[in-house]
Amino acid sequence: MKENIVLEMKNIHKGFPGVKALQGVEFTLREGEIHALMGENGAGKSTLIKVLTGVYEKDEGDIFLKGYDKAVSIRSPQDAQRVGISTVYQEITLCPNLSVAENMYIGRTAGMGQNWKKINADADKLLRSLDIPASATQQLASCSIAVQQMVAIARAVDMDCKVLILDEPTSSLDEQEVEKLFGLMRNLKEKGVGIIFVTHFLDQVYEVCDRITVLRDGKLVGAYDIKDLPRVQLVAKMLGKELDDMSDIKSEGAVYSGEDAGTAVLEAEGLVSDAGIKPFDFYINKGEVNGFTGLLGSGRSECVRAIFGADRVVGGKVKMHGKDVKISKPIQAMKHGIAYLPEDRKLDGIVGDLSVRDNIILALQTLKGFFRPISKAQAYKYADEYIKLLDVKTASADTPIKSLSGGNQQKVILARWLLTHPDYLILDEPTRGIDVGTKVDIQKLVLKLAGEGMSITFISSETDEMLRTCSRLVVMRDRKVVGELSGEQLTQNMIMNTIAGGNRDNAEN
Amino acid sequence: MQKIEKKKASPMEVMKKILGRQIFIPIAALLLLVLFNLIVDPSFFAVVMKTNSAGNPVLTGNLITILDNGSELAILAIGMTLVTAAAGGQDISVGAGIAISGSVMLRVLCGTNPKPEAIQAPIIVAFLVGCLAAMLCGAFNGALVAYFKIQPMVATLILYTAGRSIAAWVNHNQLPIVPPGSFSYFGGVIPGIPIPTPFFIAIGCMILIALVLKFTTLGLYTQSVGINESSSRLNGLNPILIKFLAFVILGICVAVAGLIKVSRFSTINYSVIAKDIEMDAILAVALGGNALSGGKFNIAASILGAYVIQFLTTTLYKFNVRSDALPAYKAVVVIVLVVASAPRVREYLNGLKKKMIQNPSRKEVG
Question: Which helix (H) or strand (E) element contains residue A224?
Answer without folding.
Answer: strand A219-225
